[in-house]
Amino acid sequence: MYSTSYLLFQSLTAVALGDALGFPIQHDTRSNPFDDPVIQMVGHLSANVPAGTWSDDTSLSIASLVSLTFGYNLYDLMTRYSQWYHFGDYTPFNHAYDVNNTTQSAISRFDNGTQPELCGGVQDADNNNTALKRLMPLAFYILTKNPNYSFNDETVKLVHDFTATTNRTPKAYIGSGILTNVIIRLIQNPNKYAMLRAVKEVLDYYRSKDQFAAQVPFFEQLEEAHFLRQSSTKIKPSSDVISTLNSVFWCLMNSEQYNVAVSKAVNLGNHADTIGSITSMLASLLFAPVTFPENWLAKLQGRNQIKIAVSSALLSDNF
Question: Is residue 89 marked as binding?
């Protein structure tokens, strides 16, 4: 197990790299995703910002890390999300962009006085990956506070309440549980077997809970080797929480190097920023220690913000 200081900085940098690589082609729907693949930072096609600029995935991750630096406080968390949305905090250019309806609606509810844990959406459209994109700091926080960590009721409450600030659906809760546990287990033991065991650990927990058992079958393919080894043409990336996890785990299971996994994730196309960001973060743990491609790092915007956020977190008692 590598030091928390090393892995936290590496993980947040990886979030930003995958995000910035995928953002320009996040709406790409090529029939063959690996025709003319994106292999370097390019200028955004949907926003007037330079190559290497990250979107909401990284902004919300930085805001989450800064908030958790001062402890687990959902009111503080949502205040920082609101500051990001309204004033451009936690962005390279003081302007928030790529804000989806789920996030915008949650922040609006909070601004109007709704309790943080009730701000998340409960519609079918809210079965998306909004919570997934900001979970990495929470996983590090939970592991720091619980050296004898297990995926139990106490952990689940923290994860569910954190998720509920934007998404309050059973599928979103399960998806967040899976991703949080996988991050923690990869920090502890970076290999693919540990990753798959972490998925099973979470699904077994939810199978035992009446309010979630009916939703578990939607995620069971993540336990199946033949699903994770199928052709890329069978993977259908989207913002849906299940589709996102399917895509991320497919990329990881079919790669043996960090940059290969990230390139596969980004070039799947649809919602490439979030799928690229999550894959990049997990791959940085799975294949740790990693050396990030220099041509990616050289163009990455806002690197100082990442360093400052991680440095402050590591000076606290929470990381």
Answer: no
Residues in the chain: 319
Q: Is 161 annotated as a binding residue?
A: no
Is residue 130 within 8 Å of residue 102, measured between CB atoms? yes
Classify the phi-psi angles of 98: left when phi > 0, otherwise alpha if psi is within -120 to 50, otherwise beta: left
**Residues ≥6 apart with Cβ < 8 Å to 234:** none
Residue 273 marked in a binding site? yes
Tell me the β-bridge partners of 167.
121
Q: What's the one-letter identity of residue 163?
A: T
Tens digits of residue pLDDT in 15-62: 999 999 998 777 666 556 566 677 788 876 666 789 999 999 999 999
pTM (2 d.p.): 0.95
Task: Set out the domains of the chain in order of their start, with CATH numbers.
Answer: 4-315 (1.10.4080.10)
Residue (of 99, 48, 61) closest to 305 by Cα position: 61
Closest CA to 20 of 291, 272, 289: 272
Is 274 annotated for ligand binding?
yes
Does the annotation place 126 within a ligand binding site?
Answer: no
